[in-house]
Amino acid sequence: MYDALKQTFNRIAPLSDADWAFGLPLFKYVEYKKGELILREGEVHHHSIFVIAGALRIYNFNGNKESIRNIFLENSMFNESGSYYLKKPSLFNIDAIEATKAFIMHRNDAEVLFSRSVQLATLGRRFAEYALATVVERNNELTSMDGKARYLKLLKEKPHVFQRVPQYMIASYLGITPEALSRIRKEIAG
Amino acid sequence: MYDALKQTFNRIAPLSDADWAFGLPLFKYVEYKKGELILREGEVHHHSIFVIAGALRIYNFNGNKESIRNIFLENSMFNESGSYYLKKPSLFNIDAIEATKAFIMHRNDAEVLFSRSVQLATLGRRFAEYALATVVERNNELTSMDGKARYLKLLKEKPHVFQRVPQYMIASYLGITPEALSRIRKEIAG
DNA sequence: AAAGTCTATTGATCTACATCAATGACTTAA
DNA sequence: TTAAGTCATTGATGTAGATCAATAGACTTT
Questions:
Q1: Whether B82 and A137 lie within 8 Å, measured CB to CB
Q2: Tally: H helices and E strands in chain B
Q3: CB distance A62 to B144 below 8 Å
Q4: In Å, how far are A40, A47, A59, A83 from A37, measured between CA atoms?
Q5: Cβ of residue A185 near strand D, that is under 7 Å?
Q6: Strand D closer than 7 Å to the CB of B185?
Q7: A71 pLDDT band (50/70/90 cuts)?
């Protein structure tokens, strides 16, 4: 049950058996149906989510159009950072693209956990650092590459996403319309 | 000398005198001339920078045009996250917009520091968490607001930046051209 | 199988903003 | 004081991608 989680975490910062014994019970196992809303814009996000299987997305609305900020597949850990860390109303929605199994941990439990040992504190730090580096890179893509270049980069770096997510969501993730993505694909194929 | 730094850090996570005594000597005091290049694209960024006085910017080139990602004034701490945390070549340059005084700390020293106590580890974690929340919010602005809205938001939230930074840098930070910013300003004034 | 619902594609048009070019205001150097 | 840079402004034009609209294939429901 906890294997994937332990492997993922140990890759980031190795923990003692005692720390594991303390930490694992703080996770709560949950299942989400396909399409189920997990966090609504305006609510405060209290939990970090570790995806065991399935796919979640975080998105908001520009006008009445969904804008997908990120997609999380199995073995990824995330939260709505602005809301989770700063306890502010979320700017985003989170829902399940597929039926999903996950572990979640409440912020309060996470704080207790990360205060227990230097190793655990380091784990928490590394998660934030890695997420930070990832977001900065994505930010750079969105501002310095055009739609075609972003599409090609995604194709190259996350090809597995395409087998699982409809094209209009890919377009949204890339920051363009489905029509624009369709044209880009046509141009590349032709 | 260390007052501003201590105040800023204590606001994030309070430290014991022993931790302070251990940590402060790990900072190195530096001064940068106006216009001085601090990090060149392609190099690995080894230091976190705490700005005591002055102003630094982090930017890269789209073609031959500078694109400013962020501007850091006094009492802010930052690094090139992707490069610093993942030890990859930097995508960005860092230089001094004004003559600047700063403390810098090498990543290796920071790791030693953050491994010394849970309080210090928590400080390191909070820095990354706060930076993460900030970057996600900025990302959201850049993708969901137009130039005018981004300008008004900056005006409202960081008015002090305008007294110190030329307009073409503001434009670059906002992700638009100086011409576009000039037109936005004209439209708002009129 | 028929009917309704999604999704992807294609075409026509529109728009925010970029690019290119010229000008005037300010600053700095001789 | 003049000359040479900078910087902000304004005008003319170009363009990536949005928006609107229509069509067709694939899936689902009955």
A1: yes
A2: 8, 8
A3: yes
A4: 7, 14, 11, 16
A5: no
A6: yes
A7: very high
